[in-house]
Amino acid sequence: MELNTKGRYAVMAMADLASQSSAEATPLPAIAERQQISIAYLEQIFIRLRRAGLVESARGRAGGYRLARPAGEIVIADIMSAVEEDTRMTRCRGEDGAPCLPGHRCLTHNLWEALGARIADFLATVTLQDVLDGLPVHPGQPAAVEAFISPAGVRTAR
Length: 158
Hints:
It is a single chain. 43% of the residues lie in helices and 5% in strands. By secondary structure, the chain is mostly helical. The protein is elongated. 20% of the residues are buried.
């Protein structure tokens, strides 16, 4: 999977926003500067995040954005979905789209499709608060990962 900049930047910006005081709105130029993201690109992302109900905007001198819900209630999958980022690993476009290869699926189609589903499921379990709390890098260590996948690789309750 190649995660495009829209998805990565949306998550980075939301994590930045979540790390700020929830009482005050954070101006986009401040987020853009801290995260080294183009303000014009960030504006496009925040339009989608606002439409999805993930952020609220405040106008005026102290204007900017704040989270619409607590960071612990916003999952990364919702952010990715808001900016239309998917976890599709195959070249094909599904049942009603073009196949991987001319006329048929590739031999590894099911492997990549299953991996994309696992990634999507994982992103649906990780909240912005998990990210702020320093979700460890090594699989098996974070609570979110351990609760999500048992040693046998079977989905369990979080």
